[in-house]
Amino acid sequence: MHRQGSSLTVVEHPLVQHKLSLMRDRNTSTAEFRRLLREISLLLAYEATRELPVAAAEIDTPLERASFPLLAGKKLCLVSILRAGNGILDGMLDLLPSARVGHIGIYRDPRTLQAIEYYLKLPDDLAERDVVLVDPMLATGNSAVAAISRLKELAARSIKFVCLVAAPEGVAKVSSVFPEISIVAAALDRCLDPHGYILPGLGDAGDRLFGTK
Fold first, then answer.
1. Which domain holds residue 165?
2. How many domains does the chain have?
């Protein structure tokens, strides 16, 4: 783990970095990309949930009764920014099968690069849950800011943003609007190109995940 500034944590675990490097390779197949994303997402979930509250509970082991830590209160809500966020969602649910799930549909206008919402479905009790918001790429930051704004409107108890690859521009945008939001990423890349894609990046995560190009 390596912290960049006040809001960004880059997960430098060797397994995370190895899997991400394989995902960057343009020759990696859709099936392999999908499998790697699921695996790396589980590892990112481990980091994103490091500070979940626990409380002691009495448990009978085969030998005696004793007090042990269990997650306290209402559990997590995982929120995917459609469509590519679903690739991270699958891996996180392997680790957190009891988590509630929400979806926010946002697309980026190719001319203005602004985020436009087209779908929203979230649990009713969001105010009682800690939210992990997921999207593979944090590029301009416009989609992340739009999604976080929605979650704030609905009074989510806490919000963390988890991505594979972040651009400095996206981190700066999210941090300037929501300085209290923690960002967890597998890598901080160099910059954005004129079309808003991350360099060196890994291409369009949604297209590579679903084989649509």
1. 2-210
2. 1
Burial 142-157 (b: 16+ CB within 10 A, else e): bbbbbbbebbeeeebe
Q: Which of 3-12, 100-109, 111-120 has the highest mean pLDDT?
A: 100-109
Q: Quick: pLDDT tens for 78-92.
A: 999 988 899 999 899
Which residues are the active-site residues? 108, 112, 204, 207
Q: Please state, in angstroms and rounded to a whole number, the distance separating the CA atoms of residues 18 and 12.
A: 10
Closest CA to 37 of 87, 89, 101, 78: 87
| Cα–Cα distance measured from residue 139 to residue 192, given in angstroms and rounded to the nearest whole number | 7
According to the 3-state scheme, what is the secondary structure of 17-58? HHHHHHHHCCCCCHHHHHHHHHHHHHHHHHHHCCCCCEEEEE
Mean predicted lDDT score pLDDT of the chain? 91
* CATH number of the domain residue 127 falls in: 3.40.50.2020
Handedness of CA 90, 93, 97, 102 (dihedral sign): negative
